[in-house]
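Please discuss these two lines.
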Amino acid sequence: MSKRARTQVSRRGFLAGTAAAAAAATVPAIGQAAAAPGAAAATRPNILLIVTDDQPKQTDWALQKTIGWLAGQGVKFSHGHVTTPLCAPSRSSIFSGRHAHNHGVRNNAASAALDQNTTVQRYLKQAGYRTGLFGKYLNSWNIADAPPHFEDFALLQPGYVDAKWNVNGAVQTINGYTTNIIKNRTLSFLDKAATDTRPWFAYVTPYASHGPRTPEAKYAGTPVPEWNGRPSVTEADRSDKPPYIQDATGTLEDGKRIRAEQLRVLLSVDDAVQAFKDKLAATGQLDNTLVIYIGDNGFGWADHGWTAKSVPYSPAHEVPFYLSWPAGGFGAGTVDDRIVANIDIAPTILDAAGVTPNTPQDGRSLLSSYSRDHLLVEWWKQGTAPDHRTWSSYVAKDEQYVEYYKLHTDAHGTVSGTGEVTFREYYDLAADPHQLVNKLYQATPAQERNLGIPALAAQLAADRVG
């Protein structure tokens, strides 16, 4: 089979080949429910989707309870990514299972571009699920507007303390730490299962670990493990990087500060996740609840001088990603090394719920054995500043190819520009995981051919319109 071959088998076939098969054997083939509407409805899982904000991958220290549950009694995806490292585009990909170039939310101002009829919450509500949203929704969303297809919601205007909320249509200020308010609202939603027998979908999305990264009072000043950077932080020569990265000014001390602040605010998220587990166990819902945890994008700790997201380097688009569903055969504590992404979440949820979407999706169910050999990651610059930061990238486990373009978007996500390629990067991730050496810098045509660049460029061009 060629390097770029892809395989799709049924979820039942996949489970039969794993240690989880015994646990799954007594569970109806939920994925078949789409072919037989209403079949085994009583076995449809509850779904708890937890999405954090700006959480990079190397934050395990703050999530010991979360990891103990979701990785220790579920699946840890070691190659988890987002397809656009920016909040609203990534969340729209989570909802729709589509790349940003297909759902249209190419920047944080363009949330209105998302077709709400394509979202996982719409499909689940239509299929009889009780739906709830607790926390942040989409950037640029008007706090007074109800989030579509959620019947119970506490919508947060981003903030950490004494923030503004829309609670089921009533805009109000609620005093307190927002992660704890989200936790308590979610716990109340889970309790309602005692009187409402419908399966439920809870979208839970704290503001952590987004700036200003204000910790809960009990965690302010908490000591965190020492960290002295990584090679990408202390990179001495960035002459092979695009101009805006050459001009980046983030330092190791900046990275240390951001990391410490993120870890402290994530401690409260960890407490909330533990509370969810305890509630599910106490109410008898733990076994048949599909839980997914992901960050909406990563964040640079001064890697290549960059202290944000939005770049094609690994810290920006690699994220923590966990799944647990004991009744579905995903409760054993395994590591899955497939390349997986936020676009796979909606297909996974709908597969588990036995719902077939009538709109296209780019992702694939994580409950199957589908394995991609690479992922499209893309980002658009908003506005007409002179630098050219719109880019797309072919990301595999062992290599990454990046192109920058003369393109920009307006506030509606509409793209303008010539599309001319202005800069390219290629990294051998096996030998250079910190992306220090751009092998296309001053490369000859023969060297480019030896690296396989023509084929990578052709595949990237196809992915961008796929």
